[in-house]
Please model this.
Amino acid sequence: MQKQTFGVHPVVPLSAAVRAGDHIHLSGQVPFAADGTLVGGDIEVQTRQVLDNIAAVLKQAGATLDDVVKTTIWLSDPADFQRFNAVYGEYFPKNPPARSCVAGRLMVDAKVEVEALAYKPSA
Model:
């Protein structure tokens, strides 16, 4: 099986995603804008940025949000869960992926981090 990486980070030793066969494993995404700055704002703004980032990385790997089969979510404040969930539902309106959601302290000053696993057979 060949391994292909996408979005190798210039400073931190990680790839935004790694395709291993028919699976695409995405690193945890936080609300960074394309210029590398952390997007502030409320949970809704940050969640949209994170899910847009995931969609962009999936596109590089030849996949879409429809191909996501599992997500793991970390929220810095459990009180944000319902508002996060409303935005998440906009991105996964039907056949949502399996998921886990936990509250915990994040490594950057963000409200949300999302990791994803997608299944898309190689061309």
Observations:
- Residues 75 and 112 are 5 Å apart (CA to CA).
- The beta strands are 3-8, 15-20, 23-29, 68-75, 98-103, 112-119.
